[in-house]
Design goal:
about 0% strand; Cytochrome Bc1 Complex, Chain D, domain 2; disordered N terminus; about 55% helix; about 100 residues; mainly alpha; 4 helices; single chain
C-alpha cells in the first residue's frame, strides 16, 4: 500500500512539473518573458515577486491586467495590453505565476 502511495505522489509531481514547464513555454510564446523573468526584475517585476504580493483571490484582477495592461502597481513603466493572449491563456499564465511562491 505504501508503494502505491509513493508512486501516486511521484506521478503527481511529474505531472505538475510538466504543467509548470508548459506554462513557462506559454509565457515565452506570448512574449511575456521579454519584460519579465521568474526570479529577477527586467522591465516588469519578477514573477516570484508577483506571486508574493498577490493571492488566488486576486486572480481575476491579474487576468484583466494581463489582457488590458496596467500601471502603477510596480512603478512608472506601464504594462501594455496583450492582444495576442486569449482570456483562457491569461488565466493559465496567472495561475502559473501565482504558483511560483
Amino acid at each position: 500500500m505504501k508503494a502505491i502511495y509513493v508512486c501516486l505522489l511521484a506521478t503527481a509531481g511529474i505531472m505538475s512539473a510538466g504543467a509548470a514547464q508548459a506554462d513557462e513555454a506559454l509565457a515565452k510564446a506570448k512574449g511575456c518573458l521579454a519584460c519579465h523573468a521568474i526570479d529577477k526584475k527586467i522591465v516588469g517585476p519578477a514573477y516570484k515577486d508577483v506571486a508574493k504580493k498577490y493571492t488566488a483571490k486576486d486572480e481575476a484582477k491579474l487576468v484583466e491586467k494581463v489582457l488590458k495592461g496596467g500601471k502603477g502597481s510596480w512603478g512608472e513603466v506601464p504594462m501594455p495590453p496583450n492582444a495576442t493572449v486569449k482570456p483562457e491563456e491569461a488565466t493559465k499564465l496567472v495561475k502559473w505565476i501565482l504558483s511560483l511562491k
